[in-house]
Design goal:
With 119 residues, the chain is mainly alpha-helical. It has five helices and two strands, in the order αβαααβα. It has one domain. It starts with a helix and ends in a 9-residue tail after the last helix.
Length: 119
């Protein structure tokens, strides 16, 4: 149930950000759900591999290169999901920053106060 809520909240944020940012776009809310699912899968399978390969650069930049990895994942998602587009790297970077910020706020709001984080 929690996974479904996270996907729907992420889809809502993706649709809202796509309507707010001029360098991004989305066709409809169903496309937002697909974007949320693809982003979740890419964060589970692709992101750890990219972090492993870029570990020296990430350490050298004190972790700031992770922002580039997040933007790269958004750009890959834009090419995989039809109906979702991002105009370039800088829009993907801004999109990923705002998405992460909004997710942290909304996921904290939906979290059960009696439940341990991450469960």
């Amino acid at each position: 149930m929690r996974l479904l809520i996270q996907i729907l909240v992420t889809a809502f944020i993706v649709v809202a950000l796509s309507n707010f940012l001029p360098g991004t776009g989305i066709e409809n809310y169903m496309t937002g759900i697909w974007v949320a699912i693809v982003l979740g899968l890419m964060n589970v399978f692709v992101k750890p591999i990219l972090i492993l390969f870029t570990l020296p650069v990430t350490i050298f930049t004190f972790g700031l290169f992770l922002l580039v990895i997040n933007a790269f994942i958004i750009m890959i998602c834009s090419s995989l999901v039809k109906g979702f587009y991002v105009d370039g790297f800088w829009w993907a970077l801004l999109f990923s920053l705002l998405l992460s910020f909004c997710q942290s706020i909304l996921f904290a709001a939906f979290q059960n106060p009696n439940q341990k984080p991450g469960i």
